[in-house]
Amino acid sequence: MSLLQLIYTPATAQINLVPNPSFEEYVSCPNSLEEVDGNLKNWRSFKGSPDYFNNCSSNLGFANVLSYQKAHTGEAYVGFVNCDVNNNAEQIGVKLNSSLIKGNKYYVSFYLSLAYNNYSLNISSNKMGVMFSTLYHYDSLGIKQLSNYSQVFSSIVIKDTVYWIKVSGSFIADSAYEYLIIGGLFDINQLDTSYLSNASPPSQSYYFLDDVCLSEDSTICYTNVSNCDFILPTAFSPNGDNMNDTYKWITNCTNYVDYIMNIYNRWGEKVFTSNNSNYTWDGIFKGEQQPSDVYAVYVSVVVDGKPISKISNLTLFR
Protein backbone atom coordinates (compact mmCIF):
# COMPACT_ATOMS: atom_id res chain seq x y z
CA MET A 1 0.00 0.00 0.00
CA SER A 2 1.37 3.39 -0.98
CA LEU A 3 1.60 6.45 1.26
CA LEU A 4 -1.09 8.06 -0.89
CA GLN A 5 -3.48 5.16 -0.15
CA LEU A 6 -2.75 5.41 3.55
CA ILE A 7 -3.68 9.07 3.52
CA TYR A 8 -6.67 8.77 1.17
CA THR A 9 -8.55 5.79 2.62
CA PRO A 10 -9.59 7.26 5.99
CA ALA A 11 -10.58 10.54 4.34
CA THR A 12 -13.14 8.86 2.07
CA ALA A 13 -14.82 7.29 5.11
CA GLN A 14 -15.65 10.74 6.49
CA ILE A 15 -17.86 11.93 3.63
CA ASN A 16 -21.27 11.34 2.19
CA LEU A 17 -20.69 8.94 -0.71
CA VAL A 18 -23.90 10.10 -2.44
CA PRO A 19 -23.37 12.90 -5.01
CA ASN A 20 -26.01 15.63 -5.17
CA PRO A 21 -27.68 14.14 -2.05
CA SER A 22 -30.43 16.77 -1.71
CA PHE A 23 -31.12 17.07 -5.47
CA GLU A 24 -30.17 20.75 -5.65
CA GLU A 25 -27.93 20.45 -8.73
CA TYR A 26 -29.81 20.39 -12.03
CA VAL A 27 -29.45 21.25 -15.71
CA SER A 28 -32.73 23.15 -15.99
CA CYS A 29 -35.86 23.71 -13.94
CA PRO A 30 -38.42 20.91 -14.34
CA ASN A 31 -41.42 21.82 -16.48
CA SER A 32 -43.28 18.52 -16.34
CA LEU A 33 -43.24 15.28 -14.41
CA GLU A 34 -40.72 12.54 -15.19
CA GLU A 35 -37.84 14.99 -15.81
CA VAL A 36 -35.16 13.15 -13.82
CA ASP A 37 -33.07 11.78 -16.67
CA GLY A 38 -30.86 14.36 -18.36
CA ASN A 39 -32.11 17.13 -16.05
CA LEU A 40 -31.21 16.14 -12.50
CA LYS A 41 -27.45 15.87 -12.12
CA ASN A 42 -25.98 12.46 -11.18
CA TRP A 43 -29.35 10.76 -10.54
CA ARG A 44 -31.15 8.57 -13.09
CA SER A 45 -34.33 6.57 -13.38
CA PHE A 46 -33.89 2.89 -12.60
CA LYS A 47 -37.51 1.73 -12.72
CA GLY A 48 -40.60 3.53 -14.00
CA SER A 49 -40.52 7.32 -14.12
CA PRO A 50 -39.70 9.05 -10.81
CA ASP A 51 -40.24 12.81 -10.71
CA TYR A 52 -38.09 15.86 -9.98
CA PHE A 53 -39.38 18.87 -8.04
CA ASN A 54 -37.55 22.16 -7.61
CA ASN A 55 -38.91 25.44 -6.28
CA CYS A 56 -37.36 27.24 -9.25
CA SER A 57 -40.30 25.83 -11.23
CA SER A 58 -43.70 27.51 -11.27
CA ASN A 59 -45.64 24.24 -11.37
CA LEU A 60 -43.24 21.64 -9.95
CA GLY A 61 -41.97 23.43 -6.85
CA PHE A 62 -43.20 23.15 -3.28
CA ALA A 63 -46.74 23.66 -4.60
CA ASN A 64 -46.87 21.09 -7.37
CA VAL A 65 -49.37 19.15 -9.45
CA LEU A 66 -49.38 16.20 -7.04
CA SER A 67 -49.41 17.74 -3.57
CA TYR A 68 -47.64 20.39 -1.48
CA GLN A 69 -44.40 19.98 0.45
CA LYS A 70 -41.44 22.15 1.34
CA ALA A 71 -38.02 20.58 0.85
CA HIS A 72 -36.37 19.05 3.90
CA THR A 73 -33.33 21.16 3.04
CA GLY A 74 -32.73 23.49 0.12
CA GLU A 75 -35.18 23.94 -2.73
CA ALA A 76 -35.55 20.50 -4.30
CA TYR A 77 -36.53 16.87 -3.84
CA VAL A 78 -37.71 13.89 -5.90
CA GLY A 79 -40.79 11.67 -5.78
CA PHE A 80 -41.58 8.04 -6.54
CA VAL A 81 -44.42 5.52 -6.46
CA ASN A 82 -43.74 2.97 -3.74
CA CYS A 83 -46.67 0.84 -4.86
CA ASP A 84 -50.04 1.04 -6.58
CA VAL A 85 -53.02 -1.26 -6.92
CA ASN A 86 -51.48 -2.78 -10.07
CA ASN A 87 -48.22 -3.57 -8.22
CA ASN A 88 -46.21 -0.91 -10.03
CA ALA A 89 -43.30 0.89 -8.38
CA GLU A 90 -40.62 3.44 -9.25
CA GLN A 91 -36.93 3.64 -8.41
CA ILE A 92 -34.27 6.33 -8.74
CA GLY A 93 -30.54 5.69 -8.48
CA VAL A 94 -27.09 7.24 -8.47
CA LYS A 95 -23.51 6.13 -9.05
CA LEU A 96 -21.64 6.55 -5.77
CA ASN A 97 -18.58 8.75 -5.38
CA SER A 98 -16.59 5.58 -4.70
CA SER A 99 -17.35 1.88 -4.63
CA LEU A 100 -18.17 0.25 -1.32
CA ILE A 101 -15.54 -1.90 0.33
CA LYS A 102 -16.63 -5.46 0.92
CA GLY A 103 -16.80 -6.27 4.63
CA ASN A 104 -17.05 -2.64 5.76
CA LYS A 105 -20.00 -1.25 7.70
CA TYR A 106 -22.00 1.60 6.16
CA TYR A 107 -24.67 3.92 7.54
CA VAL A 108 -27.64 5.08 5.49
CA SER A 109 -30.25 7.78 6.07
CA PHE A 110 -32.89 9.51 3.98
CA TYR A 111 -36.06 11.55 4.52
CA LEU A 112 -39.57 10.78 3.28
CA SER A 113 -42.90 12.57 3.26
CA LEU A 114 -46.18 11.13 1.99
CA ALA A 115 -47.72 12.91 -0.99
CA TYR A 116 -51.49 12.90 -0.59
CA ASN A 117 -54.55 13.96 -2.52
CA ASN A 118 -58.02 12.47 -2.33
CA TYR A 119 -58.30 11.33 -5.95
CA SER A 120 -55.21 9.21 -6.69
CA LEU A 121 -52.41 9.52 -4.11
CA ASN A 122 -54.37 7.97 -1.27
CA ILE A 123 -52.39 5.00 0.07
CA SER A 124 -49.68 5.04 2.72
CA SER A 125 -47.25 2.15 2.95
CA ASN A 126 -43.99 0.88 4.38
CA LYS A 127 -40.72 -0.63 3.11
CA MET A 128 -39.61 2.40 1.12
CA GLY A 129 -35.97 1.43 0.94
CA VAL A 130 -32.43 1.50 -0.36
CA MET A 131 -30.69 -1.26 -2.29
CA PHE A 132 -27.16 -1.38 -3.69
CA SER A 133 -25.99 -2.76 -7.02
CA THR A 134 -22.82 -3.27 -9.01
CA LEU A 135 -24.65 -2.44 -12.26
CA TYR A 136 -26.90 0.24 -13.69
CA HIS A 137 -30.24 -0.98 -15.01
CA TYR A 138 -33.18 0.84 -16.56
CA ASP A 139 -36.68 -0.59 -16.49
CA SER A 140 -38.59 2.29 -18.08
CA LEU A 141 -41.86 0.37 -18.33
CA GLY A 142 -41.65 -0.87 -14.75
CA ILE A 143 -42.38 -4.46 -15.74
CA LYS A 144 -39.39 -6.30 -14.27
CA GLN A 145 -40.02 -8.26 -11.11
CA LEU A 146 -39.33 -6.35 -7.91
CA SER A 147 -36.44 -7.56 -5.78
CA ASN A 148 -38.36 -7.85 -2.48
CA TYR A 149 -35.10 -6.93 -0.81
CA SER A 150 -33.54 -3.81 0.64
CA GLN A 151 -30.55 -3.22 2.90
CA VAL A 152 -32.33 -0.37 4.74
CA PHE A 153 -36.05 0.43 4.64
CA SER A 154 -38.90 1.93 6.65
CA SER A 155 -40.35 -0.83 8.80
CA ILE A 156 -43.50 1.16 9.62
CA VAL A 157 -46.17 2.76 7.48
CA ILE A 158 -45.33 6.45 7.00
CA LYS A 159 -48.49 8.55 6.95
CA ASP A 160 -47.12 12.02 7.65
CA THR A 161 -47.88 14.53 4.89
CA VAL A 162 -46.55 17.56 6.80
CA TYR A 163 -43.15 16.68 8.22
CA TRP A 164 -40.23 14.76 6.79
CA ILE A 165 -39.60 11.40 8.45
CA LYS A 166 -36.05 10.12 8.75
CA VAL A 167 -35.34 6.51 7.82
CA SER A 168 -31.91 5.20 8.78
CA GLY A 169 -29.95 2.02 9.34
CA SER A 170 -26.68 0.25 8.70
CA PHE A 171 -25.41 -2.80 6.84
CA ILE A 172 -22.23 -4.70 6.00
CA ALA A 173 -21.30 -4.49 2.32
CA ASP A 174 -21.09 -7.95 0.78
CA SER A 175 -19.84 -6.65 -2.57
CA ALA A 176 -18.07 -3.67 -4.11
CA TYR A 177 -21.32 -1.90 -4.89
CA GLU A 178 -21.18 1.13 -7.19
CA TYR A 179 -24.84 2.20 -7.34
CA LEU A 180 -27.43 3.20 -4.77
CA ILE A 181 -31.07 2.55 -5.74
CA ILE A 182 -33.94 3.99 -3.72
CA GLY A 183 -37.71 3.70 -4.06
CA GLY A 184 -40.27 0.92 -4.31
CA LEU A 185 -38.45 -2.39 -3.97
CA PHE A 186 -41.17 -4.75 -2.69
CA ASP A 187 -44.30 -6.28 -4.21
CA ILE A 188 -47.50 -4.85 -2.79
CA ASN A 189 -48.31 -8.17 -1.10
CA GLN A 190 -45.08 -7.75 0.88
CA LEU A 191 -46.17 -4.34 2.22
CA ASP A 192 -48.37 -3.01 4.97
CA THR A 193 -50.68 -0.39 3.48
CA SER A 194 -53.37 2.00 4.68
CA TYR A 195 -56.11 3.53 2.52
CA LEU A 196 -56.47 7.22 3.40
CA SER A 197 -59.57 8.46 1.59
CA ASN A 198 -63.15 7.41 0.98
CA ALA A 199 -63.52 9.97 -1.81
CA SER A 200 -62.13 7.66 -4.48
CA PRO A 201 -60.87 4.08 -4.85
CA PRO A 202 -57.34 3.33 -3.61
CA SER A 203 -54.75 4.08 -6.28
CA GLN A 204 -51.12 4.93 -5.43
CA SER A 205 -48.68 5.24 -2.55
CA TYR A 206 -46.34 8.09 -3.50
CA TYR A 207 -43.50 9.58 -1.45
CA PHE A 208 -41.30 12.64 -1.68
CA LEU A 209 -37.60 11.95 -0.99
CA ASP A 210 -34.82 14.27 0.19
CA ASP A 211 -31.33 14.26 1.75
CA VAL A 212 -29.91 10.82 0.98
CA CYS A 213 -26.77 9.91 2.92
CA LEU A 214 -24.32 6.99 2.85
CA SER A 215 -21.12 6.93 4.88
CA GLU A 216 -18.84 4.74 6.96
CA ASP A 217 -19.09 7.44 9.62
CA SER A 218 -22.35 7.21 11.57
CA THR A 219 -22.11 10.89 12.55
CA ILE A 220 -22.27 12.01 8.91
CA CYS A 221 -25.71 10.58 8.17
CA TYR A 222 -27.86 12.55 10.56
CA THR A 223 -29.31 16.05 10.74
CA ASN A 224 -28.41 18.23 13.69
CA VAL A 225 -30.77 21.16 14.17
CA SER A 226 -29.26 23.63 16.65
CA ASN A 227 -28.29 21.68 19.77
CA CYS A 228 -31.72 20.17 20.23
CA ASP A 229 -32.05 16.41 20.15
CA PHE A 230 -34.15 13.70 21.72
CA ILE A 231 -34.18 9.96 22.28
CA LEU A 232 -37.11 7.58 21.91
CA PRO A 233 -36.72 4.70 24.41
CA THR A 234 -37.26 1.29 22.86
CA ALA A 235 -39.14 -0.37 25.74
CA PHE A 236 -41.30 0.21 28.81
CA SER A 237 -43.20 -1.99 31.28
CA PRO A 238 -46.55 -0.64 32.56
CA ASN A 239 -46.95 -3.34 35.22
CA GLY A 240 -47.39 -1.19 38.31
CA ASP A 241 -43.94 -1.73 39.83
CA ASN A 242 -43.16 2.02 39.62
CA MET A 243 -40.29 1.35 37.23
CA ASN A 244 -40.73 2.45 33.59
CA ASP A 245 -44.52 2.36 34.01
CA THR A 246 -45.12 5.09 31.42
CA TYR A 247 -43.59 5.93 28.09
CA LYS A 248 -42.07 9.34 27.35
CA TRP A 249 -39.34 10.89 25.26
CA ILE A 250 -35.93 11.91 26.64
CA THR A 251 -34.77 15.32 25.43
CA ASN A 252 -32.42 18.22 25.96
CA CYS A 253 -34.73 20.47 23.89
CA THR A 254 -36.07 23.62 25.51
CA ASN A 255 -36.97 25.95 22.64
CA TYR A 256 -39.27 23.63 20.68
CA VAL A 257 -42.84 24.08 19.46
CA ASP A 258 -45.46 21.94 17.70
CA TYR A 259 -44.68 18.80 19.68
CA ILE A 260 -46.59 15.67 18.72
CA MET A 261 -46.24 12.05 19.76
CA ASN A 262 -48.16 9.24 18.04
CA ILE A 263 -47.93 5.55 18.94
CA TYR A 264 -49.31 2.84 16.63
CA ASN A 265 -49.92 -0.87 17.11
CA ARG A 266 -48.84 -3.46 14.56
CA TRP A 267 -52.09 -2.98 12.59
CA GLY A 268 -51.45 0.73 12.13
CA GLU A 269 -54.08 1.76 14.67
CA LYS A 270 -53.17 4.87 16.67
CA VAL A 271 -53.25 3.87 20.35
CA PHE A 272 -51.86 7.11 21.78
CA THR A 273 -51.48 10.70 20.62
CA SER A 274 -50.57 13.91 22.41
CA ASN A 275 -49.55 17.47 21.65
CA ASN A 276 -48.40 17.96 25.25
CA SER A 277 -44.80 16.85 25.83
CA ASN A 278 -45.56 16.33 29.53
CA TYR A 279 -48.15 13.63 28.82
CA THR A 280 -47.00 10.01 28.88
CA TRP A 281 -48.55 6.75 27.68
CA ASP A 282 -49.54 4.23 30.34
CA GLY A 283 -50.14 1.37 27.92
CA ILE A 284 -53.94 1.82 27.96
CA PHE A 285 -56.11 2.36 24.89
CA LYS A 286 -59.90 2.77 25.00
CA GLY A 287 -59.86 1.83 28.67
CA GLU A 288 -58.05 -1.47 28.10
CA GLN A 289 -54.49 -2.53 28.82
CA GLN A 290 -52.67 -3.14 25.58
CA PRO A 291 -50.85 -6.45 25.16
CA SER A 292 -47.12 -7.08 25.23
CA ASP A 293 -46.07 -6.39 21.66
CA VAL A 294 -43.96 -4.17 19.41
CA TYR A 295 -45.42 -0.74 18.67
CA ALA A 296 -44.22 2.16 16.52
CA VAL A 297 -43.62 5.57 18.10
CA TYR A 298 -43.32 8.84 16.17
CA VAL A 299 -42.31 12.17 17.70
CA SER A 300 -41.92 15.50 15.94
CA VAL A 301 -41.02 18.98 17.15
CA VAL A 302 -40.07 22.23 15.42
CA VAL A 303 -36.92 24.08 16.51
CA ASP A 304 -35.98 27.45 15.06
CA GLY A 305 -38.49 26.89 12.28
CA LYS A 306 -37.05 23.49 11.32
CA PRO A 307 -38.77 20.16 12.08
CA ILE A 308 -37.05 17.26 13.82
CA SER A 309 -38.87 13.95 13.46
CA LYS A 310 -37.98 10.45 14.61
CA ILE A 311 -39.58 7.02 14.38
CA SER A 312 -38.65 4.02 16.49
CA ASN A 313 -39.93 0.59 17.44
CA LEU A 314 -41.21 0.32 21.01
CA THR A 315 -41.63 -2.93 22.92
CA LEU A 316 -44.32 -3.03 25.63
CA PHE A 317 -43.54 -5.61 28.34
CA ARG A 318 -46.02 -6.80 30.97
Attribute tags:
single chain, 318 residues, mainly beta, Jelly Rolls, Immunoglobulin-like, five-stranded antiparallel beta sheet, 1 helix, 3% helix, disordered N terminus
How do you describe this structure in short?
With 318 residues, this protein is mainly β.
Please give the structural blueprint.
Layout: H1 3-12, E1 43-47, E2 51-54, E3 76-84, E4 91-95, E5 105-115, E6 123-125, E7 128-133, E8 152-153, E9 165-172, E10 179-184, E11 193-195, E12 204-215, E13 230-231, E14 235-236, E15 250-251, E16 256-264, E17 270-274, E18 284-285, E19 288-289, E20 293-303, E21 306-316
Parallel strand pairs: 14-21
Antiparallel strand pairs: 1-4, 2-3, 3-12, 4-10, 5-9, 5-12, 6-11, 7-8, 7-10, 13-15, 16-17, 16-20, 18-19, 20-21
Description:
The chain is mostly beta strands. The protein has two domains: 205 residues, Jelly Rolls (Sandwich); 87 residues, Sandwich (Immunoglobulin-like), CATH 2.60.40. It has one helix and 21 strands. A five-stranded antiparallel β-sheet has the order 1-4-10-7-8, with no helix packed on it. The protein has a five-stranded antiparallel β-sheet with strand order 2-3-12-5-9, with no helix packed on it. A five-stranded mixed β-sheet has the order 14-21-20-16-17, with no helix packed on it. Strand 20 and strand 21 form a beta hairpin. The radius of gyration is 20 Å and the shape is globular. The protein starts with a helix and ends with a strand. The N terminus is likely disordered.
